[in-house]
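The passage that follows is intended for readers who have already worked through the single-chain material. We present the inputs for a multi-component assembly, then the predicted structure in tokenized form, and finally a short commentary. You are encouraged to pause after the input and sketch how you expect the pieces to fit together before reading on.
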Amino acid sequence: MRKGVQTIPKASASELNDLLKKNQLSVTGSRKRILELFLVSEGALAHADIEKMTEEKFDRVTVYRTLQSFMEKGIIHTIPTAGNSIRYALCKQDCTEGHHHDNHVHFFCTGCQKTICLDTVTIPNVKLPEGFTPTDRQMIVSGVCEDCR
Amino acid sequence: MRKGVQTIPKASASELNDLLKKNQLSVTGSRKRILELFLVSEGALAHADIEKMTEEKFDRVTVYRTLQSFMEKGIIHTIPTAGNSIRYALCKQDCTEGHHHDNHVHFFCTGCQKTICLDTVTIPNVKLPEGFTPTDRQMIVSGVCEDCR
DNA sequence: GTAACTGCAAAATATTTGCATCCTT
DNA sequence: AAGGATGCAAATATTTTGCAGTTAC
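Having made your guess, compare it with the prediction:
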């Protein structure tokens, strides 16, 4: 059985704690809650998603600032989208402050509208025209996920 | 020599005209001007870019509506970005209303901040996990373009 | 106790909508 | 002439900033 939006497993308190401390962030309620959302949801989250999921408990501004802190520490990264809503996802690899290694494919489901990190699918290399020097690659595949067939 | 931002070649008036008519859009000043921007700039344009390049000649709202019309007719398409600014680019292939075939790689230059369509570079196929059905692929490579080396 | 985090208010920015006028066909 | 496109005003929505009160360490 797979995790759906309904079945929200809980992340252990110590796990949240450790992850925050490891990144030199003080452990606060909003940070724990928002970090937990990332840990338990397999998909990427937009600012709006987080606001909905936290049931108005936090100030909108706190969410903005928390996401920014997580970004700076390399806990989360942004995922390119075609629309104008930034989506964030947990960095699974060895992201360090300022430098991300996020070389897996992202899948956007046109059914449930979720963005899922396909950690097992590596972005293939491409040969660029003369003169272009690549430093980073992103790939988004859209379609229908296993839940929405 | 390559086209820079300075060297803006002109698109022929009849070309603009034909392209608009072919898509059942009435030929107006703002549409011609904005379509020309797409034709002469090799990169993708964000709403803000267009406002800057048109020197305040058009109302902000007109730009929004023009881009929306172009999208609906399949003249332009959006390009995924990590930030919260939608970028648009001309559809070079046989895009039809509602369905786009845009299977080339996009290059984002961290130097000049431009997004360039690499029409000659096709997005490679990837093998997805069981259960995922792909319908569309997007790939963005960032790095340094030939002008910014 | 101190530095950092949060919430509120407000500013700045971005996007959408309604409507009267003007332009294209 | 008719339908659609534009510009203006204004309504919404989104993001950022300042500051005072609160919390983590």
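Commentary: Residues 1-8 of chain B have pLDDT under 50 and may be disordered. Residues 109 and 144 of chain B are 5 Å apart (CA to CA). How closely did your sketch match?
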